[in-house]
Write a sequence for this structure.
C-alpha cells in the first residue's frame, strides 16, 4: 500500500487519474462513453486520467458517472459524540419538563381545571 503522505501533489493527481482509468476500464466504458454520461469532454477525461489538474466538480461528475461517489463517504460521516461531552451537554441543557395532559388526568379520575368553580365569589 502506498503512503499517500509521502507522495507529492502531482503524484497524487497521477494516482487518482490511474484509479479513475482502472475503474472505467473495469466497467468496460470508453472515454467517449464516460464523457457523454458525465457531461464532460473526452479531452477532460483524458487529462484527468493522465494526472493533469482538474476541478473538484469534474472529479465528482466522473465519479458519479462511474457510480463511485462512495469514496467520499468518509467526508460525510458524522463525528461521534463522546459520552463525556454528551453528559456535559445534558447538564447544561436539561430537557424541559412537560405539562401533564389534563384529558388523560380526567380519564384517570384526577382533578382538572374544569373541576374548579372559578366564579366562587359570584355565588
Amino acid at each position: 500500500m502506498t503512503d499517500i503522505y509521502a507522495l507529492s501533489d502531482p503524484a497524487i493527481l497521477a494516482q487518482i487519474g490511474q484509479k479513475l482509468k482502472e475503474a472505467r476500464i473495469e466497467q468496460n466504458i470508453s472515454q467517449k462513453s464516460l464523457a457523454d454520461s458525465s457531461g464532460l469532454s473526452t479531452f477532460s477525461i483524458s487529462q484527468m486520467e493522465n494526472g493533469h489538474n482538474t476541478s473538484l466538480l469534474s472529479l465528482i461528475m466522473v465519479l458519479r458517472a462511474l457510480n463511485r461517489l462512495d469514496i467520499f463517504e468518509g467526508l460525510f460521516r458524522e463525528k461521534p459524540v463522546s459520552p463525556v461531552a454528551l453528559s456535559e451537554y445534558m447538564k447544561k441543557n436539561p430537557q424541559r419538563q412537560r405539562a401533564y395532559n389534563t384529558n388523560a388526568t380526567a380519564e384517570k379520575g384526577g382533578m382538572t381545571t374544569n373541576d374548579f368553580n372559578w366564579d366562587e365569589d359570584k355565588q
Observations:
- The chain has a mean pLDDT of 85.
- Helices lie at 9-26, 31-38, 42-49, 56-65, 73-76, 83-92, 102-107.
- The longest helix spans residues 9-26.
- The CA atoms of residues 90 and 97 lie 14 Å apart.
